[in-house]
Amino acid sequence: MTNSKFHESNSLQSLHQSPFFDHIRTNTYIPSTVEKLHISHLLVAPQHELNALNSEIAGLEWDIEEVLAKKASLDEVIEQHQCLLAPFRRIPDDTLRSIFLYCLPADHDAIIMLTEAPLLLTQVCRRWRRVAFDTPALWCTLYIPRIPRLSVESPSGIHLAPDAQFRLEAHISAIAQWLKQAGTQPLSISIPKTAFAFTAYLAILLSFSRQWYRIRIHADDPTTSIALASLSPEDVPLLKELHITFSNWSGTAQSHKLWQKNGGILNAPNLKSLTLHYFPINIATMAPNWKNLTRLVLCDPSTFSRKSSPAEVYMILRTCTSLVHLTFAVYDAPPVTLLPIGQGHPLPFSLANLRLPFLESLSFNDHYYYMPALLWYLQAPSLRRIAFSTLFHPSSQRLSPLVALCTMNGTTLRHLTFDPRTLTYTDLRACCALSPNLESVEFQPSRISPTQEQASGRIGPMMVNIMGPIFQLLTPSLDGQCYWPRLQSLSSGVPVLDEYAALRFVRSRIEAISTNSFQTHSILPLKHLSIILGFGEHIDLAARLDEYVKNGGLKLDIVDHWKPRPTVDDAVLVPGIFRAREGIAESTFWPPPF
């Protein structure tokens, strides 16, 4: 409260009360000696009043600080006691363990990093740490990255760093403790190709082989290859998923002969999923027990690096009757006889009863001239998805294997991926007619294709207008005829030059349902279109299709110009930095079929 003494008449309460008001905020007035004394006298009372107010404010601030200190103390008391009432504290340990398990990565094995589960869960509190270490299932997956800077370069050459052995032993010890923490749980382990000095890890990993459930490993050196080939089915009773990448060096062929003798780990009794890259042995000479396999990948789908012989493919089709997914590439072989389809086949084995009743997806690269004969007799009543590429030119003298496969199995197809530039127009139209229930198609440029000109979509200096005729083929005719009437998604990595054909295709597909002439043919409206436009001038295709995006539920993805995907140069990566996630994209055990 303001003291009454500050309300005296001679106390200036505002600028308007000052006799010098007219001169305030000016720079031309110069007070005289008498006026200086007058001004000083006028400021005595206001200065006393200001000092009193400052004292009162200081007292109030002290009171406020005291009150705030009491408030902070009470806040801490209440907060800490409310924490004791938090519902999470009442969660039983078993429920907490279940929550912890959901914290693990869903698409790759756990990483040895303090910022990710499960190690992250051990740093929250004592209880969490105890529960985490008492939960073996948290530690049953492991991704092992390489250790950086194990070697150094000097004028005399490349040699191990002085502390390399110490760091390597520490890393191996940590891995051993991690795996022991898993108890008797089935183990999922993956090691990228960049893992240096893998043989140092081999002994500790082999000691846990009876717990292996899912393994991704590189057998680049003879020691690893021999160790895996020496494992008996009894050594890996729980193994269900196996991914092995071998070295493609011809000089290591002698070290792989043991595989041909007994098959090693490939004969695991419960093996369901098998991926083999650069496998050096002819599978047809091994006779492995793969009747329980549901997923088999015999090459890298992105490069089709390892091609199988026709005999290998035939053996797989005859014996692996439980397959749900199959990926392979087959190389050419000299025929025994030259008989056209319908009058026999030029294969040195019977093609009767080639039936895969559970096969749902098939990805293959065609490098075998008589591949159509091999696939002509294949029966796959559950086949839903096909990805196809070829090294042959499109020719009227050779039926496309895709047509041969669709002849027996086209009615069940729902998804198709292929490069339209590797088919003749006749074969393309036959595929459309043989797969009337197709729902999704992806025109994917082949990385492995007959010629560089076809792979790039060019002949000489001009681009080939491949997509124009395809859009015309898939556009419903005026009499109501339509190929792929149930098609709802079309994605093309092949450049589109005829944008008007694409526009007519989309309009006819979406408007077909409201046109009387199409009502009896069950044409479904298009829901997704993804295309790449070729070089040159373009119409505003997105604007012309905007009404279908807003009102018709169309999802539209248009890239204005075709550009190759950028790649990361390894040289720009900082050397010597520990990257625990390095190679993690390669360690995924649940990839899409294609």
From TrEMBL:
A Pfam match: F-box-like
Top-rank lineage group of the source organism: Eukaryota
InterPro entries named among the record's database cross-references: F-box_dom (IPR001810), LRR_dom_sf (IPR032675)
Residue ranges occupied by any F-box domain in the UniProt entry: 89-144
PANTHER family: F-BOX DOMAIN CONTAINING PROTEIN, EXPRESSED, IM:7136021-RELATED
Protein name: F-box domain-containing protein
Organism whose genome encodes this protein: Pholiota conissans
